[in-house]
């Protein structure tokens, strides 16, 4: 009974291997894709599909720098007026021409769609109009340099196809008409998205006739799918399998330093801090984390190189900045703090904590690459310089509300940003809801000089000048040890040998960049 | 009862007639002893982060750690000695399994006897709640409960009690209802004995034997459920891994050939559950009069 | 009969009510779904707008009343994460889970009945003992661990079967099913086997116990004494004696199979509703969690009712409604 069954299995297996066509590409995705509507749910996996079917006026290159998309060029006519010149001869998948009307409609839809999560990118635009079918002008109330960056997040849909469309009409494919490199074929929620080549794509036809994105969030299942030939490429390689894949000739890797930086927020606004005590567990009158020397000691106690090598399997680089090296506003002159446990102890003693103290480190356990392992490793290292550290890891759904609520003293966060000044605005500017500053400033770090530089930068249209200001602002925050940088993730893709991919800083997985 | 419960003194010799069951009992005793003595026999305290060294991470079985000692079953990603982690993990598993089963047994008895004693709407509420629990698969209840409660051994035990008590409540109530009408209870009441005393002295001993076998099997089921929940990421904190969490952590390394992080804890879990089940199976054969065949 | 059915329906509604209230309050207690739903750089005004549009700015009791009102009309809310009605999401994934559970049940029956018969007829033989030992193993092996080992062996080492996901589907009476395509069958085999393992052990033991009991019954002894062939004795008399309890238990256990699919679906990335539940718990998608449990309760109530009715039909001694023990 048994041998014939095994024979049958072998036969099935052989058939499965032969069924793959040369111009078909199957990609294993690490996170669930929830909606096809490009103006509904703003999460990376949805945007990833969006970039295949649609385009935006402004694109981002592999180094996370903005480049022309459906807009050939743009310029600021004055501090508050921007003009975008559109590409001519671009056609939607249904053959209709792309014009300024579609741009205005898409901006309008992103702003008005009920529950839409893209409205914040267009709300600063007080006026939008078409000068001619290939020129769009937008105005803001105050000088605002980030208009092209914001419009990178607005996918352009066809006015004709999406005039009255609901998210369901996009999920069913009825309204999924874009200008992107692939046409939409099918969306099976929780399972896959199927796309077909757009041979007339203005950026050059992609190499694949048919692309299937399979949703496989479970790490081992995704890697097993690649190893067994179920898919041709996968994103977000679990670091545990890097060594094995590097040594396997059947597969190739593509990698690049990602824009995502991991760091610790430190409670700098409360005496005492909820999760800091002395080593015996008794409350401390003062909060040691408010002392910049203590924060520097923590930074020196962390052996970033060891975490990068042992926990991350070299899929990370030690961080000194809020943004990684290729990103706008990175300050190269500041180097990652060197591992120096003796120096850390000396600094602690000088700050009055010769005996050390105790605290709890909070981290998510399902958000960043190896987040729970990183938390434990850091706790080990802090324990060695006298900071007895407990670890509590939580699912991200529980973690974020508590962190925002100010429940933690020392907490891990990961952040990806287009530019250093945007990261500073969210993470370290003094919280100000009206200005949209400091929404994620769990430390409650506040420095008027930093805020002033940010105000100035966002009103500066000249990119060179703005970058200089962003670097100046970063220097202020980093010299204050405003947060404790850990590392920048390295995004890694694996594919069958013979397929190549131009790895991206923004971690997107683009079928049209695979060959 | 149509046959007297097997007398305890005679039980062991008759138990021993089945060689497999005896071996299982011996192995179980060994595993329990190892788990209880873990703090004294384990090479390392795997829950103390200060004793771990990242540089000892992922050593294969038999390799030498930085301080020169040999790690028999390898280490995990944090440099945690797998043997020590298994010993401590078995402690957690056994603790969660036994405490939750005892808790469920106590709660079920209390509610079942209470329902039988008070009747009326007390009984209606208790028994409907029991129906509710029994009509749902245990994993679903535990999953939702833990999602609400959060992490921690105490919360795991609460969730495990919540999925087990109803069976005991039903059985206790049925047994108590049958006993209630018997002469000795009426006599005890007529003598003016307090309800609690009657329950404890007379009803309880009559309800216990049929539940003992079930409770044994339930310990194994609870251990398995705890491991499954930990595997799904709901359960114990990462710094105090139980067997299920160790397997889950090692799961990520299975494909890269670092089998030991997941494999040995899995083996320990399997051994624990198989031994308990084999012992329970033999106990049932001995205690169930309908299956007295030798 | 009508009274009995109404009673059962009333009970089911009460269960639904109690459960939805508990889950509603519970998920509310864990945390604010807003915190995870809004994009990181959204302003407070955006957040307030989103909360208002989802009704999350209302007090809990009012949110619950709104939910009940909509539920009465068959609407169980719109998923926060997918912005699609929760019932739609679940019904989309129901076929995949049912297909997996049915395949597992069939596997358990097709393998379990012969194995149990063999063990019951020859309890002392080596195969008989081996089958019993195997069934204890089947009870003991944690599902997730076996799933892992299956993937290791058949997908990674041997490369015979796909590691994860559901294969190509065909429409059968409007429902997408995968067991009609070769690709679909390949994908189905391992998860179904994984899910079936526990039930396989259960069926094997049930059949063995039933067989042993049947062999000691007078009519079976009589049939044997009369000189009927062994095949006929087993095929007609023994099997008839064991099939009713097996069918009852398998029917009742079908619900737990659907629930345990949560684990199997997670390991094999099977796009069923169990995986949806885990994902929804992870993002606090309350409408989906509540709707999942409502749909599951309905499923269980239906199954239990069907089994009760079937038992009443098969066995005149069972009286409906008079369930006092």
Features:
heterotrimer; B: 294 residues; mainly alpha; MetI-like fold; 12 helices; 2 strands; 70% helix; disordered N terminus; disordered C terminus; C: 325 residues; two-stranded antiparallel sheet
Topology of this protein?
The complex is a heterotrimer of chains A (515), B (294) and C (325).
Chain A: H1 2-18, E1 24-29, H2 44-53, E2 55-56, E3 58-60, E4 66-68, E5 71-78, E6 81-86, H3 100-112, E7 125-132, E8 135-140, H4 147-151, E9 155-156, H5 159-162, H6 167-172, E10 182-188, E11 192-197, E12 210-215, H7 219-227, E13 233-234, H8 242-246, E14 251-266, E15 276-277, H9 292-301, H10 304-311, E16 316-318, H11 341-350, E17 357-364, H12 371-384, E18 387-394, H13 396-404, E19 410-416, H14 420-427, H15 448-458, H16 463-479, E20 484-496
Parallel strand pairs in A: 1-12, 1-13, 17-18, 17-19
Antiparallel strand pairs in A: 2-9, 3-4, 5-6, 6-8, 7-8, 10-11, 11-12, 13-20, 14-19, 14-20, 15-17, 16-20
Chain B: H1 8-16, H2 19-36, H3 38-41, E1 63-64, E2 70-71, H4 82-118, H5 120-134, H6 138-149, H7 153-162, H8 165-180, H9 183-190, H10 195-231, H11 243-254, H12 260-287
Antiparallel strand pairs in B: 1-2
Helix pairs in contact in B: 2-4, 2-12, 4-5, 4-7, 4-8, 4-10, 4-12, 5-8, 6-7, 8-10, 10-11, 10-12, 11-12
Chain C: H1 2-30, H2 33-37, H3 44-54, H4 60-72, H5 86-121, H6 126-140, H7 143-157, E1 170-172, E2 175-177, H8 182-216, H9 218-225, H10 230-268, H11 273-282, H12 286-314
Antiparallel strand pairs in C: 1-2
How do you describe this structure in short?
Chain A is 30% helix and 24% strand. By secondary structure, chain A is of the alpha+beta class. The two termini of chain B are 21 Å apart.
């Amino acid at each position: 009974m048994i041998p014939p069954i095994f024979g049958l299995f072998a036969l099935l297996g052989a058939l499965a291997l032969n069924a793959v066509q040369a111009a078909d590409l199957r990609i294993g995705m690490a996170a669930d894709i929830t909606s096809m509507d490009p103006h509904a749910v703003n999460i990376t996996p949805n945007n990833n599909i969006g970039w295949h079917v649609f385009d935006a006026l402004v694109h981002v290159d592999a180094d996370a720098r903005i480049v022309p998309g459906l807009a050939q060029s743009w310029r600021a006519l004055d501090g508050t007026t921007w003009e975008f010149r559109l590409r001519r001869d671009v056609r939607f998948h249904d053959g209709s021409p792309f014009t300024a009307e579609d741009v205005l409609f898409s901006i309008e839809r992103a702003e008005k769609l009920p529950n839409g999560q893209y409205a914040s990118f267009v709300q600063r635009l007080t006026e939008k109009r078409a000068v001619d079918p290939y020129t769009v002008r937008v105005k803001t109330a105050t000088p605002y340099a980030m208009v092209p960056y914001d419009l990178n997040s607005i996918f352009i849909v066809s006015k004709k196809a999406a005039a009255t469309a609901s998210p369901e009409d996009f999920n069913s494919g009825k309204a999924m008409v874009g200008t992107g490199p692939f046409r939409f074929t099918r969306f099976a929620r929780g399972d896959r998205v199927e796309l077909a080549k757009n041979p007339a794509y203005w950026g050059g036809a992609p190499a694949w006739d048919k692309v299937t994105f399979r949703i496989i969030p479970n790490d081992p299942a995704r890697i097993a799918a690649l190893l067994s030939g179920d898919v041709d490429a996968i994103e977000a390689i679990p670091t545990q399998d890097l060594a094995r894949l590097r040594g396997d000739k059947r597969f190739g890797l593509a990698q690049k330093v990602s824009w995502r930086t991991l760091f610790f927020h430190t409670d700098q606004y409360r005496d005492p801090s909820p999760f800091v005590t002395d080593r015996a567990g008794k409350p401390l009158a003062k909060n040691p984390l408010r002392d910049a020397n203590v924060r520097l000691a923590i930074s020196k106690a962390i052996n970033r190189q060891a975490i990068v090598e042992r926990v991350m399997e070299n899929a990370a680089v030690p961080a000194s900045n809020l943004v990684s090296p290729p990103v706008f506003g990175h300050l190269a002159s500041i180097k990652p703090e060197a591992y120096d446990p003796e120096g850390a102890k000396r600094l602690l003693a000088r700050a009055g904590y010769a005996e050390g103290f105790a605290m709890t480190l909070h981290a998510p356990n399902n958000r960043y690459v190896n987040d729970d392992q990183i938390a434990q490793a850091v706790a080990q290292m802090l324990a060695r310089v006298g900071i007895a550290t407990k670890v509590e890891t939580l699912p991200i759904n529980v973690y974020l509300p508590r962190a925002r609520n100010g429940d933690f003293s020392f907490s891990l966060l990961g952040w990806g940003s287009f530019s250093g000044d945007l990261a500073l605005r969210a993470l370290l500017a003094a919280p100000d809801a009206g200005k949209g500053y400091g929404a994620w400033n769990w430390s409650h770090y506040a420095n008027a000089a930093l805020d002033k530089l940010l105000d100035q930068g966002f009103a500066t249209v000249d990119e060179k000048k703005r970058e200089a200001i962003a670097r100046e602002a970063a220097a202020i925050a980093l010299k204050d040890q405003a947060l404790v940088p850990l590392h920048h993730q390295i995004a890694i893709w694996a594919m069958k040998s013979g397929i190549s991919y131009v790895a991206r800083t923004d971690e997107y997985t683009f079928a049209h960049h695979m060959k | 009862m149509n046959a007297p419960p097997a007398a305890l003194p005679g039980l062991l010799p008759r138990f021993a007639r089945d060689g497999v069951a005896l071996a299982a009992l011996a192995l179980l005793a060994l595993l329990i002893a190892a788990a209880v003595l873990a703090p004294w026999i384990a090479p390392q305290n795997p829950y103390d982060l200060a004793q771990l060294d990242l540089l000892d991470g992922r050593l294969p079985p038999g390799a030498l750690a930085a301080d020169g000692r040999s790690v028999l079953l390898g280490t995990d990603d944090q440099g945690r000695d797998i043997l020590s982690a298994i010993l401590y993990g078995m402690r957690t598993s056994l603790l969660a399994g036994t405490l939750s089963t005892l808790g469920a047994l106590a709660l079920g008895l209390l509610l079942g006897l209470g329902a039988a004693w008070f009747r009326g709407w007390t009984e209606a509420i208790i028994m409907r709640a029991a129906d509710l629990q029994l009509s749902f698969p245990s994993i679903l209840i535990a999953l939702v409960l833990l999602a609400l409660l959060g992490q921690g051994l105490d919360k795991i035990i609460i969730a495990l009690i919540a999925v087990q008590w109803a069976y005991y409540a039903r059985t206790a109530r049925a047994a108590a209802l049958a006993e209630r009408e018997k002469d000795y209870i009426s006599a005890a009441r007529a003598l003016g004995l307090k309800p609690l005393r009657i329950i404890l002295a007379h009803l309880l001993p009559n309800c216990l034997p049929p539940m003992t076998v079930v409770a044994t099997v339930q310990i194994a089921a609870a251990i398995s459920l705890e491991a499954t929940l930990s595997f799904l990421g709901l359960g114990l904190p990462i710094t105090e891994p139980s067997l299920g969490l160790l397997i889950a952590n090692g799961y990520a390394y299975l494909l890269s050939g670092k089998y030991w992080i997941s494999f040995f804890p899995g083996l320990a879990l399997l051994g624990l559950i198989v031994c308990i089940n084999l012992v329970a199976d033999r106990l049932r054969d001995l205690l169930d009069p309908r299956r007295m065949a030798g | 009969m009508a009274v009995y059915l109404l009673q059962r329906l009333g009970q089911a509604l009460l269960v639904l009510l109690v459960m939805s209230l508990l889950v509603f309050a519970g998920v509310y207690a864990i945390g604010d779904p807003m915190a995870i739903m809004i994009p990181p750089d959204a302003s407070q005004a955006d957040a307030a707008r989103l909360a208002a549009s989802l009704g999350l700015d209302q007090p809990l009791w009012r949110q619950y009343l709104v939910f009940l009102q909509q539920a009465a009309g068959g609407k169980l809310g719109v998923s926060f994460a997918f912005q699609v009605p929760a019932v739609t999401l679940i019904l989309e994934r129901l076929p995949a889970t049912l297909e997996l559970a049915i395949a597992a049940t069939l596997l358990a029956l097709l393998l379990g009945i012969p194995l149990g018969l063999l063990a019951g007829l020859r309890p002392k033989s080596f195969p008989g003992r081996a089958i019993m030992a195997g069934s204890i193993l089947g009870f003991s092996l944690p599902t997730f661990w076996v799933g892992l080992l299956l993937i290791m062996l058949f997908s990674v080492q041997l490369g015979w079967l796909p590691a994860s996901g559901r294969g190509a589907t065909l429409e059968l009476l409007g429902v997408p099913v995968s067991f009609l395509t070769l690709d679909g069958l390949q994908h189905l085999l391992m998860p179904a086997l994984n899910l079936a393992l526990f039930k396989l052990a259960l069926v094997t033991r049930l059949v063995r116990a039933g067989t042993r009991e049947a062999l000691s019954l007078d009519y079976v002894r009589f049939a044997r004494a009369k000189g009927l062939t062994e095949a006929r004795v087993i095929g007609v008399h023994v099997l008839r004696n064991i099939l009713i309890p097996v069918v009852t238990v398998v029917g009742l256990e079908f619900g737990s199979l659907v629930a345990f699919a949560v684990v199997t679906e997670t390991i094999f990335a099977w796009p069923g509703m169990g995986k949806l539940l885990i994902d929804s718990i992870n993002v606090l998608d309350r409408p989906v969690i509540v709707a999942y449990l409502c749909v599951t309760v309905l499923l269980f109530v239906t199954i239990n009712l069907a089994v009760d009715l079937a038992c009443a039909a098969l066995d005149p001694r069972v009286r409906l409604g008079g369930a006092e023990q």
